[in-house]
Design a protein that fits this description.
A hairpin with a 5-residue loop joins strand 5 and strand 6 (88-98). By secondary structure, the chain is mainly β. A five-stranded mixed beta sheet has the order 3-9-8-5-6, with no helix packed on it. It has strands at 11-23, 29-34, 37-46, 58-69, 73-82, 88-98, 104-115, 119-127, 130-147.
Length: 154
């Protein structure tokens, strides 16, 4: 009979946002285009001239990567995103297991969020409901008003 190691909280070894992650058959991850700043342009067509752009909400899609190690036991991770106005969206909880301190575990999550303002969008990583890390994604949202009448095909 083998003795089980006592539970030890893992450390957060990596926390990042990227365009996508490819996983090879052997489990090796290739991370594509790590991002910390996103520029989003939106064109708004109007029937009449507008003094300012109406509110917009643009979907932004990315992959959130966390890597855990040096721990032993069963754990739960969840992720949040807080926009510049302070509104927070929670993403699903995922469980993982580390059999010993020599093992590590990489969690990948595909997230889609509605971006409605420029500023810092803070992603939070939680382990068993305790915040252990943050990643700041700077978003620059620009909207351009286009007068529909002046751009109609002839």
């Amino acid at each position: 009979m083998t003795q089980q190691e006592p539970e030890v909280k893992p450390s957060l070894q990596a926390l990042l946002v990227c365009e996508r992650v490819d996983t090879a058959p052997d489990g090796t991850h290739t991370i594509h285009r790590v991002v910390d700043r996103v520029n989003v342009s939106v064109q708004i067509e109007a029937d009449e001239p507008l003094a300012e752009s109406p509110p917009v909400k643009v979907p932004l899609e990315f992959t959130f990567v966390t890597r855990w190690g040096a721990g032993v036991g069963h754990f739960k991770q969840h992720t949040t995103m807080t926009n510049p106005s302070g509104e927070t969206v929670e993403f699903g909880e995922k469980e993982f297991w580390l059999p010993n301190k020599a093992e590590s575990h990489t969690m990948l999550g595909r997230l889609t969020v509605g971006v409605s303002e420029s500023g810092n969008y803070t992603l939070g990583a939680f382990l068993d409901n305790q915040k252990v890390g943050e990643y700041v994604l700077v978003v620059e949202l620009r909207s351009h008003i286009r007068d529909r009448e002046r751009h109609l095909p002839e």
